[in-house]
Structure formats: C-alpha cells, structure tokens
Amino acid sequence: MKSRIIFLLAIIMSIITTILFFQFINQEDTQDIAEQPLTDVVVAVESIAPNQMVNRDLVEIRRLPTENVHPSALTSLEDIDGMYAVTTIETGEIVLAHRVKGQEEEQQVLSRKIANGNRAVSIGVNVVQSVSNLIQPEDYVDVVFTDTETNQSTPLLSNVRVLATGRRMTPITEGETLNEYSSITLELTASEANTLIEAHENGNIHLMLHSGVTETND
User: Smallest Cα–Cα separation from 201: which of 135, 132, 141, 124?
Assistant: First the structure.
C-alpha cells in the first residue's frame, strides 16, 4: 500500500514538474520575442491584381521581428504611393519592392497606357505632317485627311491623344534632346482606328497640334 502511494506521488510530481517546465519554456520564448527588434512592413489586406494601382486601402502596416523581414520589404505606406502591382499580390503577403513599380516605369509599357476599350494605332509621318516633329507623347491632335486624287482635305478625327512618337512614350524633359521620328501612335476607339487606317492607306494624313495651355478664370 505504501509503495503504491509513493508510486502515485511520483507520478503526480512528474506531471507537476513537466507542467512547470513547459510554463518556464513558454515564458522564456515570450520574453525572447518581446525583446526582439521589430520592423514595420507593408502587408496586403486584400488581393491586388497585376497592373492595379496599390492604394492605401489595399495595404496596412504590421510589425514583425526584424530578423524575419525580407531586405526588399516595403516599410512605409509612402513607399506604395503611385505604385502598380507587377504580379498578383495575395492577401496577407508582405509587399516587396520588386513586386511593384512606379508610374514612370508603368508608362514605359504601351499596353498599360491605353484606356480600357481603346486601341493604339501607329501611322507613318514626315516632318511636315508631325508639325516639324514637335508633337510629343500626351499631346492632343486633330487628324486631317487629304484625298490624293482630289487633293481635298477634310477633318477626320478630333482631340486624339498621342501615346508615343517613334518609340518614345513619355514627354521630353528639360535638357533632353528632341529626337526625330517617323511614326506616331494614337489612342483611338476601335471604329476610329479602322477609319484612320483606311484613310492612311488611301491618302495623306496631317496632324494639327492642340494648345497645351490650360486657361484659368481670374
């Protein structure tokens, strides 16, 4: 009987010792985590599609142990201002620098400059037709068609956005050299694109440049 009591006491003491040991380990782990340096990171709060602008409603800041943070992780909401997702960013995913790109980089991809439902169409132009090669991307132009058989000119399209001149897709900046080009890419609806292509094949096209001055009311 006595030996049985001793045996039960030994089991109870063993259980108590095990519980105390795990409590000590958990306390040490918690203390270690609390003492670790933390870093703010940008995390997606919902799925972000490729080419979608990453606004602040789609992300939040979370604090994670610094040793677990990827060197390329974005650490501030300011880092995502004006950025676009390169690929799908899943909910809960830390946003890395190579997963987004800025507006300037975005504009270098022509297909991403075209408004949904519109088309990009290029036509050949000479110096005269392109206003001495002074038309630049993001300018607006009117398109005039001249019938080579009758030599009659008629307005074809108006207020058309210029997507690119040659292979250039951004306006020139101060100090840059104005390069010559022999083609212009315009943004049009599908029906306008057909009209332009047909006219270009059957006559001459001239472009008339709109003013870039914004009027203000005093």
Answer: 124
pLDDT for 140 equals: 96
137 and 73 both lie in a single domain: no
CA atoms of 37 and 63, how far apart (whole Å): 10
pLDDT tens by residue, 142-187: 999 999 888 999 999 999 999 999 888 878 877 777 788 999 999 9
> In terms of pTM, does the model score above 0.70?
no
Angle at 14 between CA 8 and CA 17, to 5 degrees: 145
Last residue of a domain, one of 46, 81, 107: 107
Give the residue carrying structure tokens 């050949």: 124
Q: How far apart are CA 183 and CA 133, in angstroms?
A: 10
Span 121-141, average pLDDT: 94
Q: 140-147 and 119-124: which strand pairing? A: unpaired
> For the chain, how many helices (H) and strands (E)?
3, 9
Lowest mean pLDDT among 6-20, 40-54, 172-186: 6-20
Domain that holds residue 188: 113-209
* Same structural domain, 78 and 136: no
How many of the other CB atoms lie within 10 Å of CB of 163?
Answer: 21
**How many whole angstroms separate alpha carbon 25 and alpha carbon 66?**
22
Between 137 and 10, where is the model more confident? 137
Instruction: Report the C-alpha gap between 212 and 140 in whole angstroms.
Output: 8
Give CA–CA dist 38/112, Å, rounded: 37
